[in-house]
Amino acid sequence: MSKLVSSGLSKWFGDLQALADVNLTVEDGEFVALVGPSGCGKTTFLRTVAGLEAADEGAVYLADKKIEGPGRDRGFVFQQDSLLPWRTVMENTVVGLELAGRLDATETARVRKLLELVGLAGFENYHPRQLSGGMRQRVNLARALAIDPKVLLMDEPFSALDAQTREIMQTELQRIWEEGRKTVLFVTHQIDEAVFLADRVLVFARRPGRLLEDIRIDLPRPRNMATKRRPEFVALVDRIWRLIENDVRESVLVEKI
Questions:
Q1: Residue-level pLDDT, tens digit, the chain, 257 residues
Q2: Nearest alpha carbon to residue 246 among 44, 18, 36
Q3: Do 153 and 140 belong together in one domain?
Q4: Residues in Cβ contact with 173 at an 8 Å cutoff, skipping those fewer than 6 apart
């Protein structure tokens, strides 16, 4: 069953076309990563799925229902953790439930289990200033999962982390995903991160953003750091890089000009 369908999706910002006729499907429980050069519309696509941007042509459907705005059936994990500094870890995690009027003893108990799942048991009463960058992103992830969304949308959630923390968070995200098998759309600039995490990698071409290739990742799960040294992994990363190398080079040159 297709959980998410994008049909003929196009998007403009004034005279600038960000997306052009994007057609794709995401199955229930799939982890799908989006990669491509800067400015190829990855984040615009994600924001359209989230209902934060409106399509100019075409549409996106979630469980056969057309997306026409934000909804609790989608959880969004941004690049920055955007935690409320005056609230504790627990209080930040339940904010979506509070706003929805759904916070009760049962939901609070479920959130405690979520915090345990993301490795934050014992930190419920800490404030963001007391946490590392990786821990704050764990809170960010738990907050998105707390509303029990049908689809989890992640926009470069590890981009602000140092290299070592990023590697650990990739492994942790895979573990968390294996526990619940949420449908995930994950935007990243790191090709190796996409191959490590995803069931499929959607490669976007340079603006106007359009789907260049849909690559299935058949590496066995669970994956670990040794997976990144396997010849099959290296070959997949190289294949995707060769698809977008010219677009990346052109986008960098344009930015410098």
A1: 568 999 999 999 999 999 999 999 999 999 999 999 988 999 999 999 999 999 999 999 999 999 999 998 999 998 888 899 999 999 999 999 998 888 899 999 999 999 999 999 999 999 999 999 999 999 999 999 999 999 999 999 998 888 898 999 999 999 999 988 999 999 999 999 999 999 999 999 988 889 999 999 999 999 999 999 999 999 999 999 999 987 777 766 665 44
A2: 36
A3: no
A4: 141, 197
What angle do helix axes 105-117 and 133-146 make, rounded to 10 degrees? 140
pTM above 0.90, yes or no: yes
Same domain, 169 and 252: yes
Number of H helices and E strands in the chain, helices first, is 8, 10
**Domain identity same for 98 and 69:** no
Q: How far apart are CA 141 and CA 139, in angstroms?
A: 5
Kindly state whether residues 137 and 166 are assigned to the same domain.
no
CA 248/CA 33 separation, integer angstroms: 18
Total structural domains within the chain: 2
Domain endpoint, select from 148, 166, 196? 148
Least Cα distance to 93 among 11, 148, 163 occurs for: 148
Q: Are residues 162 and 60 in the same domain?
A: yes
Residue 52 CA to residue 75 CA, distance in Å, equals 12
Give the domain range for residue 122: 81-148
Q: Crossing angle, helix 163-180 and helix 133-146, to 10 degrees? A: 20
